[in-house]
Amino acid sequence: MSHTHRFPGKVVFITGAASGIGRATAIAFAAEGARVAILDRTEDGLSETADAVRSAGADALVIACDVSQPDQVEAAVGRVVETFGRLDIAFNNAGVENKPAPVHEISLSEWDRILDINLRGTFVCMKHELAQMVRQGSGVIINTSSGAGVRGVAGGASYTASKHAIIGLTKAAALDYAKLNIRVNAILPGNIETPMMDRFTNGDSQKAIDLEPVGRLGKPEEIADAVLWMSADLGAFVTGAAICVDGGWSL
């Protein structure tokens, strides 16, 4: 990753930043001059991310926020604007995996848990981020979908539904704000070396590697690289896109 300071002074808002893709992306933005607000359900899990962001020479604003709680999201966006004066880039990355089960065995509470965090949480974040971006006349939003957003996954109906829906939400929002200097895109990671993948495979990463045409798991930093490209001027003509970064898994 080359650190060319593509984002000097830009304000970046990242959910799910305590580990994995969110943490890697926060560090990458910090290394390129951004001021970074990092969010996760508790502040405890954010300490390592905050230390890494500050080590890269950037301001780090730590916010405990559960994206399934609309009041917390609204307050978090307000705190970012109050602290930094604006919001330039939002990476709506928070999400959870489902407990594998066929559709008839999925409880309503489990279905609601996945959709409340993955889909409703993304919508609520966008709602408040976009309101600020409209006021300031610019902005970029990137939502984390998944390779499961473009194909089915056995035993994963709730997760798959949420990630398909994020792509539709992204495309509709991109059209709503295309003439307002606001871009909205989705990134679709494949099987990535993250704590979520460890949980999903019960620590047996070979299960996921066997599904990857390239024969390895992706690294969180590789997703971060793609997010930064989509956020930068190099991606200025890209909106409404759903970009797979998955080693060919979704093909």
Automatic annotation (TrEMBL):
<dbReference type="InterPro" id="IPR020904">
    <property type="entry name" value="Sc_DH/Rdtase_CS"/>
</dbReference>
<protein>
    <submittedName>
        <fullName>Short chain dehydrogenase</fullName>
    </submittedName>
</protein>
<comment type="similarity">
    <text>Belongs to the short-chain dehydrogenases/reductases (SDR) family.</text>
</comment>
<dbReference type="InterPro" id="IPR036291">
    <property type="entry name" value="NAD(P)-bd_dom_sf"/>
</dbReference>
<keyword id="KW-0560">Oxidoreductase</keyword>
<dbReference type="InterPro" id="IPR002347">
    <property type="entry name" value="SDR_fam"/>
</dbReference>
<dbReference type="Pfam" id="PF13561">
    <property type="entry name" value="adh_short_C2"/>
</dbReference>
